[in-house]
Amino acid sequence: MSTPPDAIVVRDLRKSYGDHEAVRGIDFAVARGEVFGLLGPNGAGKTTTVEVLEGYRERDGGDVAVLGHDPASRPRALRERVGIVLQSSGMYRFLSVREALAHWASLYPHPRGVDEVVALCGLQDKADARIRTLSGGQARRLDLALALVGDPELIFLDEPTTGFDPAARRLAWEAVRELRGLGKTVLLTTHYLDEAQQLCDRVAIVKDGRILATGPPAELGVGAATRAQVRWRDADGRPQEREVEDPTALVHELTAAALARGGTVAELTVTRPSLEDVYLQLTAEAPAERDEQAVARV
Ligand SMILES: Nc1ncnc2c1ncn2[C@@H]1O[C@H](COP(=O)(O)OP(=O)(O)OP(=O)(O)O)[C@@H](O)[C@H]1O
Ligand SMILES: [Mg+2]
Question: What's the CA-to-centroid distance between 48 and ligand 1, angstroms?
Fold first, then answer.
């Protein structure tokens, strides 16, 4: 059996607004069934990239394929297979939540049940409320519900949980995990690195219209950035700290010595940089500085 083609393929994508180059040659591919995240500072070019893929924005250069189609011509065959959460939306202000979802569902050939999606997004109490009366977070939940109700095979989520309370965020994570379980493909952007770590199979870190790194969240920055920090207090109670590639031998040495004297290793911790640490390091430095520092640390 041959591997199915990627759901999204982006090659050398470029987009300028006037003389500002917002996207400067981006390449990535998203496999079918994958949850892929775009991370990066404000103004990095994430929404521009996503909007080109959604067919909302014309590109200046590069090749883009979404489920085998060029989204630029907004083919109907593609629209029926894709669900979208825009970074900001304000549709249907005078309809109720249920009416808006029913209307949106009617545009898709095989939609999900409206009540099922209402429950999935935690909107049961607001199903009959006018949309203009929703709070910011509730309106955002509706945006997510609108993206799911058509039961599309590919879902674009541009900052889907911005403004969500912690419980709503967990609910949205469950919804994305459910999509993944159903074999759907998801492209999301987020500023919450724990969200990326929880949900994404792979992420790309974007800055100034370019991709700085791509990979599974746990493997990003492999090398200098992922060395382990081992901290403990020695037999005299003095704090100690060492940075090592693999902490196994050091921890063995410390624990063996402590056991031999019938004691413990006080306050022993082994930590690795989180995705947030790697992200901050990558986005704070120009590429040239980064390489030098990586060499300096070895
Ligand atoms: N319609 C537009 N006209 C002019 N410039 C724009 C337009 N849309 C975006 N830009 C500029 O392009 C750059 C990239 O914007 P984009 O919205 O893609 O960033 P982003 O990565 O989504 O940022 P954020 O995290 O803030 O959502 C920014 O510098 C922005 O000011
Ligand atoms: Mg954006």
Answer: 6
